[in-house]
Design a protein that fits this description.
The protein has 755 residues and is mainly β. It folds into seven domains: 72 residues; 112 residues; 76 residues, no CATH class; 90 residues, Sandwich (Immunoglobulin-like); 96 residues; 131 residues, Immunoglobulin-like (Sandwich); 136 residues, no CATH class. The protein has one helix and 66 strands. The strands form 15 sheets. Strands 8, 9, 10, 13, 17, 24 and 25 form a seven-stranded mixed sheet that branches. A seven-stranded antiparallel sheet has the order 27-29-32-31-30-33-34, with no helix packed on it. Strands 56-59-60-62-63-66 form a six-stranded antiparallel beta barrel. The longest helix has 4 residues. The N and C termini lie far apart (159 Å).
């Protein structure tokens, strides 16, 4: 095998036995020549030997401008005696680029070299890729013979092939002559095989990979493909690939049909085909709809899908559709599990959806698709509660309320959202607070965002859907029962005339001289806005020592208090007396329409009570009417005095409440024995002055029952005895006007004064 590299020395090659050829255009060839070469008379031409030996085929000769300068000339020329020029039948020549050989057919093929230029498939270019090889063992027989010449394996089908004469060379400085001495054009030496046969698979891909960009199918000889068809998709032939665009869906297969260029055939067994067909699956991006995010029956909802990490597409540049409706990419989050994409849709009522990702509107290749079942959107159930006061059924405007939302079915949760113009929301530790705007009124439905906390990163706080509560709540002020002991103050003057604020729920004693200084002060300025309007009942009552009510001193008012109002003073009216008891009671009006009342403690409304007693004397002297039903006269003659009546004055010791004690000193005028009694002794009706002790137990205002023991002086006539007509008996019974009587009585009236 001869080197195919061109030399810097000019080369002239002539078939052995050929005619003389001019080696140099001017000057002379410095002899001598050998190996059967003959120098012409002109000194510039040579005739090759008739039969050259292998050792004498190549000869390098010195050339000069004139014979006299041969000794000093360094210029040379190389002459080669080649074998007979081949006659190659190009139409019968076959090129096998995959196998790396060229099968020649013709004559004079022995030692004919084939030179090639082209980049073998799978190798990077390294300058002008060239090479050559020689036909060493052509077939035998008469006429044209065959010879297989190896070439670089994997050359393209359009590789440039040249034939080189036996023992000859090829290069830009090589001039080839035929046997007649004519210059052979270099283009005439180019070999154009009649057939190019592909023996290895033309389609190298197992599928149409659309996960990393436009769909592509690797091919071994893209230069040999004249056209490509892909059915519903669109195919374009590129360098080493066939681009597949407008792939209709990831579940489809692509029927690829490649038509080869003229003279290029594909060997399928013993058959040679001009068309290569292949059915390839679409290798798309694995796509998964995240469980619990595909909602049904929610307007303007969102869902989350996950693309496998092998997918190289930018999720934001893809066109996403859900049930053929365009979806908007809101968020993209890349994790180790893949790329999570939050898609905003218009919602769907269907039981399942088909999610599709396309490369672009123009190209329309489906790179990912998934069919997922939808889940119904849960219904939010919220409870509003004022801390310490229980649940409420409205949105308060003057103070925040806690919002407790029942957990949603499945994996999701509901998060309360603010509604401008209606209410605001404030997260606080583990709870959420809501407060209506001050100018808001009417009814409002709470708005919630449905979120899935199991999603990664920021997607866990993204709203998959916005849903309103099915009930509407009134937006109004929340009235929380305030402590009335801070809003009301009971003030009286002490004995020195200084005002004293009396503490509630404790008894107080007031100086008699300051009895008319008591008043109730309503501190509306202490009412905070967050406590709301208050409706209270103020009751002031004054009772005398005997338990009767002093009506002119009573106050009974139902009051409506607004926050930050003015102070109001309500005096206790009337001229109070000794031992009068003042009772001030303040309580809230239990109105569920106004107050936020706890369901478990409706009786626990704040209330307050003040009591004060006017100081008085230690004794009471008063007059009363006594009706002893029956008195017993203990002095002889003894007997029962029936039906008695009189007026008594009584002096009794008083306790701290102004109530008389049981025992008192009595003095009065009493009518005794007003009704005659049946018996032996007849006591005449009489008037007596009585004095003594009496026990008295009140049974009502001015009324009492008691027991009396008196010493009486009777203003009467004689006491007589019934004789029954016996003249021996004296009818007059000796008796003294002084007597001791005792018995029960009923007294009515209490007219007197304290001492």
């Amino acid at each position: 095998m001869l080197s195919g590299l061109a030399s810097a020395v000019p080369v002239v090659q002539v078939p052995e036995g050929g005619r003389p050829v001019e080696v140099i255009p001017k000057g002379v060839i410095c002899g001598p020549v050998r190996g059967g070469w003959t120098l012409g008379a002109d000194g510039r031409s040579l005739q090759p030997p008739a039969k050259a030996d292998d050792g004498d085929r190549v000869m390098e000769l010195t050339v000069a401008e004139s014979p006299g300068r041969c000794a000093e000339s360094e210029a040379t020329v190389m002459v080669i005696a080649t074998g007979p020029l081949p006659r190659i039948d190009a139409a019968a020549t076959t090129f096998y680029p995959d196998d790396g050989r060229v099968e020649l057919r013709g004559t004079n093929l022995l030692n004919v070299a084939i030179a090639w230029a082209g980049t073998p498939r799978g190798e990077a270019p390294r300058g002008p890729p060239e090479g050559q090889d020689v036909c060493l063992t052509p077939s035998t027989g008469k006429g044209p013979v065959d010879c297989a010449v190896p070439v670089a394996q994997g050359l393209p089908t359009d590789a440039v092939l040249f034939w080189i004469p036996p023992h000859g060379r090829r290069g830009p400085d090589v001039t080839t002559y035929d046997a007649n001495g004519n210059v052979v054009d270099a283009e005439a030496m180019r070999l154009r095989p009649g057939r190019v046969i592909l023996t290895q698979p033309l389609v190298l891909s197992n599928g149409v990979d659309v996960s990393k960009g436009p769909g592509s199918v690797s091919v071994s000889h893209s230069e040999a493909i004249a056209s490509a068809e892909c059915g519903l998709a669109r195919c374009e032939v590129g360098d080493g690939v066939v681009y597949v665009r407008n792939v209709p869906g990831v579940d489809a297969t692509i029927s690829l049909r490649l038509r080869l260029t003229p003279r290029v055939l594909f060997a399928r067994g013993d058959a040679l085909e001009q068309t290569v067909s292949a059915t390839l699956p679409v290798l798309a991006c694995p796509l998964t709809a995240v469980e619990g995010t595909v909602l049904r029956g929610a307007e303007d909802s969102a869902l989350v899908v996950r693309l496998d990490p092998i997918c190289a597409h930018d999720s934001r540049t893809l066109i996403w559709t859900v049930n053929n409706q365009r979806a908007r990419v809101e968020r993209v989050l890349k994790t180790a599990e893949g790329t999570h994409v939050l898609l905003r849709t218009g919602g769907t009522p269907d039981q399942q959806v088909t999610i599709t990702a396309l490369t672009s509107r123009h190209e329309g290749t489906v790179v990912a698709s998934e069919t997922a079942k939808t889940t119904p959107l849960p219904v939010p159930r919220a409870v509003l509660e004022l801390p310490g006061h229980g649940p409420i059924d409205f949105v308060p405007t003057n103070r925040p309320a806690e919002v407790h939302v029942a957990s949603a079915a499945g994996l999701g949760r509901f998060v309360l959202h603010a509604l401008p113009g209606a209410y605001g929301v404030t997260p606080k530790e583990s709870t959420t607070l809501i407060q209506g705007e001050a100018a808001a009124g009417g009814f409002v439905a709470l708005r919630f965002g449905y979120q899935l906390p199991t999603l990664p990163g920021e997607l866990a706080t993204a709203d998959l859907a916005l849903v309103d509560e099915r009930v509407q709540r009134l937006v109004r002020e929340a009235s929380v029962p305030a402590r009335v002991d801070t809003l009301f103050e009971f003030v009286c003057a002490d004995k020195d005339g200084k005002d004293v604020s009396l503490a509630p729920s404790r008894p107080h004693r007031l100086s008699y001289e300051m009895r008319n200084t008591c008043r109730v002060i309503v501190h509306r300025e202490r009412l905070m806005p967050e406590e709301g309007n208050q409706e209270v009942h103020l009751r002031v009552s004054v009772t005398r020592p005997d338990g009767s009510t002093r009506g002119e001193s009573g106050v009974d008012q139902r009051m409506f208090l607004r926050p930050k109002g003015d102070e109001r003073v309500i005096p206790v009216p009337g001229n109070l007396g000794q031992y009068d008891r003042i009772l001030v009671q303040v309580s809230h009006v239990a109105d569920e329409a106004r107050y936020a009342l706890a369901t478990t403690d409706r009786t626990g409304l704040p209330s307050a009570q003040w009591t004060a007693t006017i100081q008085g004397g230690l004794f009471r002297l008063y007059a009363t009417a006594a009706i002893p039903a029956g008195l017993y006269r203990a002095t002889v003659p003894t007997g029962q005095l029936a039906i008695n009546f009189g007026v008594l004055s009584r002096l009794a010791l008083l306790n701290n409440e102004g109530q008389e004690r049981l025992l008192g000193i009595e003095l009065g005028l009493m009518g005794l024995g007003l009704v005659p009694q049946s018996g032996d002794i007849q006591f005449p009706p009489t008037v007596a002055v009585v004095t003594g002790l009496g026990l008295r137990v009140p049974i009502g205002p001015g009324a009492a029952v008691g027991a009396n023991a008196w010493v009486a002086y009777e203003f009467r006539g004689d006491i007589k005895r019934r004789t029954g007509g016996d003249p021996n008996l004296d009818p007059v019974v000796p008796s003294s006007n002084w007597s001791f009587i005792f018995g029960p009585s009923i007294s009515v009236g209490n007219v007197g004064f304290n001492l």
